Amino acid sequence: MRRISFQDGVTYTFGPDLTPIATVRSGETVEFVCQDACGGQIRTEKDTLDQLDMDQVNGATGPVRVIGSRAGDVIRIQIRDIRVAEWGFQSIVSGHGVLGDEVDRPRTKVIPIQDGFAVFSKRIRLPVRPHVGTIGVAPPAKEWTTFYPGDHGGNLDTKEISKGNSVYLPVFQPGAQLAMGDIHALMADGEVCVTGIEIAGTIRAQVDVLRGLRMNRPLVETSDSWMALASAPTLDEAAKLATHDGVQLLARGADLPWHEAYMLASIACDLRISQDVDPWRTAKLVVPKSLMRRLPRS
Amino acid sequence: MRRISFQDGVTYTFGPDLTPIATVRSGETVEFVCQDACGGQIRTEKDTLDQLDMDQVNGATGPVRVIGSRAGDVIRIQIRDIRVAEWGFQSIVSGHGVLGDEVDRPRTKVIPIQDGFAVFSKRIRLPVRPHVGTIGVAPPAKEWTTFYPGDHGGNLDTKEISKGNSVYLPVFQPGAQLAMGDIHALMADGEVCVTGIEIAGTIRAQVDVLRGLRMNRPLVETSDSWMALASAPTLDEAAKLATHDGVQLLARGADLPWHEAYMLASIACDLRISQDVDPWRTAKLVVPKSLMRRLPRS
Q1: What confidence tens digit (pLDDT) does each residue in A93-116 have?
Q2: What ipTM is given for this predicted complex?
């Protein structure tokens, strides 16, 4: 198993001209070894977000050139496993998060991970469900910091990007230039306080190049659904884009006229929030596989 | 069992000075017989939203005076059962719904209900899960049409207001003045096309007056969670209010300092969308009961 480590290279931007630190073949399974989202700067509860060197925050291991992928293709990343460290943390700071204006002072909470549970307190132990917070490719033109989510992926903070599920990303540049990091041991929809349980870890994933799929934005596949993900400056705009994409997916994949798919989505496809805290917000329309005949091709 | 029917009275507004059509005692179980949201105006697929007399749309059966309830109390409505008619409908029209600008012309689809399934097409049969779309009380001051959701309830379009679950509404006026209607046989989070399966039906519910609960906005109780509901002109604002309320509920109900509850919500409480199509939008923070010790009292 080939390992690509943050020690080989970390990117803090998704730009059109990324220089790869490694290459993978379509169909290859590799490991991405990742620092936590704060690049290891938080070691104790005395370390808070306001003290950090922000140039070392939200790094993604990579980028990796995916051999043979070119603009117009799609890469599928099947998450085979995510192993996390023995502890993670949550941090809050005034001005960030849904209730950033209610935070009195910066605080960090260290959360041990024991036997698959996050030990939030003596009473509150929650089963971990690790996911990849940031996963993206080189975008078509403008450079994005890794704080942003967008059509290229990036800081999607979508809890379903977890073991057993897959992410589909449109390819905009030769070789795709895949990078990932920002693992969370656990997070809820919204990520309301601005952090999940931020943690170092290793992602094992199979990368495949797919041809002939129509896709402008990221898609997540779980055992029972397709999720059309969209990011925009506001939740309202992200929700509209995700609905647009999801209804189109449903119409094509279920052989329905657009207006029938639009109605069906309203009764069978949940419109949900991935995160409501990053510089852009991410929404998802959840399309049950039971409604679909196939993933639509162009 | 006492029945209160739309034939006795329907309200199209939630105002501070509603005149009750009936009274209920705290602890009493009654039936509310409701027209569909379009007041029976849609009979075939030729009847579309653009043709309707809008003065007869989204009526709520009631209002009912809840004996002994006064401003500062809370009423709990436990939904015991919802029986629906043999058919419902979905309608779309340009300018309404998340993708209202993509709708070419008004359309209505009649959906038969057979053996507990909504027959969307020969291939697509979906189990119904009826819920109450509009449920509210007299607000403190301003009059709201029943199209709006707000702190008084109203057009919440929250799919969890269904059999076995309860809604808690703050009381602002003597007697609460409870009204409900707008039943959906099925709806997904978002209600993206602007209609669920709109249908006539009968709601059986127990109404209780509760004292000493702190509550400014509606709350929904399911078997495993408390949902703090909030409505506002945008999804972004509604999401912020729901998070504010839900975190406060969690802090008080779990005996946690506010900052710990804020962090815990970020990993354990999903921020979700009830509806993204009414004149105001409704969001919900889902607080698992497993985290709570009790429902906080003032």
Answers
A1: 999 999 999 999 999 999 999 999
A2: 0.98
A236 vs B118, B124, B234: nearest CB? B234
CATH class of A2-86+129-210: mainly beta
Quickly name the fold that domain B2-210 has.
Jelly Rolls (2.60.120)
Which residues of B are less than 8 Å from A259 in CB distance?
92, 103-104, 107
Chain B nearest-CA distance from A51, in A, is: 19
Spatial separation of the C-alpha atoms in residues A182 and A155, rounded to whole Å:
8
Q: Domain locations in chain B? A: 2-210, 219-291
List phi, psi (to 5°) of B187: -160, 150
The answer on pLDDT for A233 being more than 90 is yes
pLDDT greater than 90 at residue B146: yes
Q: Peptide bond before B63: cis, by omega within 30 degrees of 0?
A: yes
The per-residue pLDDT for A294 is 81
Answer whether residue A298 shows pLDDT above 60: no
| A vs B: CB pairs below 8 A | 185
Alpha-carbon distance B276 to nearest alpha carbon in chain A (angstroms): 8
Binning pLDDT at 50, 70 and 90, where does residue B298 land? low
Q: Say whether pTM exceeds 0.95.
A: yes
CATH topology of domain A219-291: Endonuclease I-creI (3.10.28)
Q: Which residues of B touch A190 (CB under 8 A)?
A: 239, 243, 266, 269-271, 285
Q: Chain A closest CA to B211's CA: distance in Å?
A: 28
- Is the Cβ pair A247, B97 closer than 8 Å? no
What is the Cα–Cα distance from B285 to B271, expressed in whole angstroms?
A: 5
Q: Under a CB-based contact definition with an 8 Å cutoff, are residues A138 and A154 in contact?
A: no
> How far is Cα B20 from Cα B178, in angstroms, rounded to an integer?
9
